[in-house]
Amino acid sequence: MKKVLYVATVLSHICQFHLPYLKMFQENGYEVHIAARNNLAEKNGLQLKYADNFIEVPFQRSPASLRNIKAYKQLKKLLNQEYYDLIVCNTPMGGILTRLAAKKTRKKGTKVVYIAHGFHFYKGASKKNWLFYYPIEKHFAKKCDVVVTINNEDYSIAKQKFKTRVERIHGVGVDCERYYSISSIAKEKKRADFGYGEKEFIALVVGELLPNKNQIQAIKAIKEVIKKHSNIRLLIAGNGKERAKLEKYVFENNLTNNVQFLGYCTNLEEYQCIVDLGISCSIREGLGINVIESMMSGNTFIATKNRGHNELIQDGENGFLVDVGDERTLANRIIKLIENPELKKRLEEAAKKRIHIYTLSETIKEIESIFASL
Predict the structure, then answer these.
(1) Which of 81, 85, 91, 187 shows a CA-CA span of 20 to 30 A to 154?
(2) In this structure, are 352 and 363 located in the same domain?
(3) Considering the entire predicted model, what is its pTM?
(4) How far apart are CA 51 and CA 169, in angstroms?
(5) Residue 261 has pLDDT above 90, yes or no
(6) 173-184 tens-digit pLDDT
(7) In the prediction, which pLDDT does 92 show?
(8) Are residues 10 and 129 in the same domain?
(9) Beta carbons of 137 and 118 less than 8 angstroms apart
């Protein structure tokens, strides 16, 4: 039986983005192994499925952590003991340490694929990011058989600069059987079941509570919106080290009636179909799966300008783009949507027309084609 090893720094990454692909491998007769640091205790019910074996490896996100030496040695030992036909590595540290450890097994015929979910160097990134991350990614690209990118900017840079095969897929795919729009009657009933009023205008922010996700910009914008529309409600789904700081700001600015922290949610599809608006204020984004999920659920979306969001949203055509840190413009766009239902509907219809290329069925075809070519 053929074997495939999926690697990521943390197990939640595999569970959030790759379960359909693990299922695909099992259905094609592969034995599926997973190597990652198990952080699922932080993720409120997120579970690993479609795996025949899980190997705990103490990866750390920080390149400076000495625990990554232990992770590398453990991974190298695993690859000496087990032969894998294919290794699929993800996330910066998971990807680097795996490609280092796989040097000998590649000589035996193992194919190694690195999926880049968004390089840390990009147009507009700091000089520090370019000086540190770019040479590392360029060097390690030679240590795998394919680098897979998920947006046009990353694909263009890698294709021109990396000395390896580079492919592009349309994200990791969103399941349209899970995320879809429902009728206004069904939406009203579901909102009531969740305890929200018919006249509330509900916005949803999804993502780990980290500085890069920049949820504070959305909260500050809501503070402005309330001055004109007190029925605004902001739901924040996710957990992370910024939560206490964000909650403190909400409390100190008397926003507790308008901003609600949901924690980590495994039923995001239910929230996506009851809200009026999706928001993402990320500083850096590889693509923005939450944008796709929201659009598939029939929602308007406002996002900050970055390579991932820019690829999904054409400002004023199928959503709105605002600058990172510009909470006033974000507030004005929210107010504009509240006061102009026809505009909101037009943007939603435009979003639906082009989002199908990011569905799970399409990305599985793209991934299958790459793996088959190996």
Answers:
(1) 85
(2) no
(3) 0.90
(4) 23
(5) yes
(6) 999 999 999 999
(7) 93
(8) yes
(9) no
